[in-house]
Amino acid sequence: xxxxxxxxxxxxxxxxxxxxxxxxxxxxxxxxxxxxxxxxxxxxxxxxxxxxxxxxxxxxxxxxxxxxxxxxxxxxxxxxxxxxxxxxxxxxxxxxxxxxxxxxxxxxxxxxxxxx
Length: 116
Hints:
mainly beta, 116 residues, 1 helix, 9 strands
């Protein structure tokens, strides 16, 4: 962090991949994206899925969406300003909850998320 920093905001883009692309169908079906600033919890983001319904014909499919699902390019904002008082040399860590439990249930480690 540069000296004189008075505000810090993390812009978080995320996407489930591998066997966790449709994470809402896995067991457990909940995911939370946890952001840590020097081992202190800075924010929790709840991802929302897009579920398509329809038939064989692609044009019959209609999205049944939840909050923020069609905002693909909209990042989640996580305010880090209060944590600037703890350290100006941050180690920011992003983790996704329930990945280990889901990997054990599926018997595969091909679960991935892409935060950027």
